[in-house]
Write a structure and sequence with these properties.
By secondary structure, the chain is an all-alpha fold. The protein is built from 11 helices and no strands.
């Protein structure tokens, strides 16, 4: 119905705004390295900026839980932690954005982003305690597979595969090229056709950047990168926005 359509459109706009804001934030801020667990935002996966590839987010998938061989007790604790990250858990309502001015909408989005980062950090800390070392190690591999070539921007990955300063600089420059042209766009004012076109352009820039970033590596570095990702995992296909194993 009309109400559902408007709500879905608003949700899509929210995701777009978060993605654009998080890309800029991730590229402008230094990234820490965790100590044995996810810590420090898991080297760039943490917070809202990396929620789609974050190890914690991957635990939403039953297939990932099975791959890690979680016990019933672990599964319960993981699900409890994930519940705090669910839409609306922080008191946020997508629909309320439609009735706000542009300025208030931006403020509300910023509040959501901060609450999301805090919730993700808390979830990461809990996972460090719930999962065994070998489970954490495998989960990191899966997260690395999920992020793919973009993981090369993480300092610890660059160090592990032996990227030079010049290579890292080149990769950062390529990554910067994926930013939306003209800065952050006001998705709310775009038509569905214009919004879809913009998403397509963003995806194409991402794919082009990934190819160029991989080309920066030597053959030996590519081999090491593949070793870091571990045994290949067949991720389930997305089942729709916000729902299902890959939602």
């Amino acid at each position: 119905d009309v109400c559902s359509s408007d709500l879905a459109r608003t949700a899509l706009v929210v995701v777009a705004l978060l993605l654009c804001a998080s890309v800029a934030s991730a590229q402008d801020q230094p990234r820490g390295r965790g100590r044995g667990g996810f810590g420090g935002g898991f080297g760039g996966f943490g917070g809202m900026g990396g929620m789609f590839n974050n190890p914690v987010g991957l635990l939403r998938m039953d297939e990932v839980k099975k791959e890690l061989n979680l016990s019933e007790e672990q599964t319960k604790q993981v699900d409890d932690a994930l519940a705090a990250l669910a839409p609306g858990a922080g008191g946020f309502n997508f629909q309320e954005l439609q009735n706000l001015s542009e300025e208030d909408r931006q403020k509300r989005m910023e509040e959501m982003r901060k609450k999301g980062e805090e919730a993700m950090k808390a979830a990461e800390e809990k996972m460090n305690k719930v999962l065994k070392p070998e489970q954490l190690a495998r989960l990191k591999q899966l997260a690395l597979q999920r992020q793919g070539v973009m993981a090369l921007t993480r300092p610890e990955v660059a160090k592990d595969i032996g990227l030079s300063e010049e290579q890292q600089k080149k990769i950062r420059e390529i990554q910067a090229s994926t930013r939306p042209e003209g800065g952050q766009r006001n998705f709310q004012d775009l038509s569905d056709e214009e919004r879809q076109k913009l998403f397509t352009e963003m995806r194409e820039r991402q794919e082009k950047a990934q190819t160029e970033m991989l080309a920066v590596l030597t053959a030996d570095q590519k081999t090491k990168f593949e070793e870091l990702k571990g045994k290949e995992f067949d991720f389930p296909q997305p089942r729709g926005f916000g729902g299902g194993a890959g939602g």
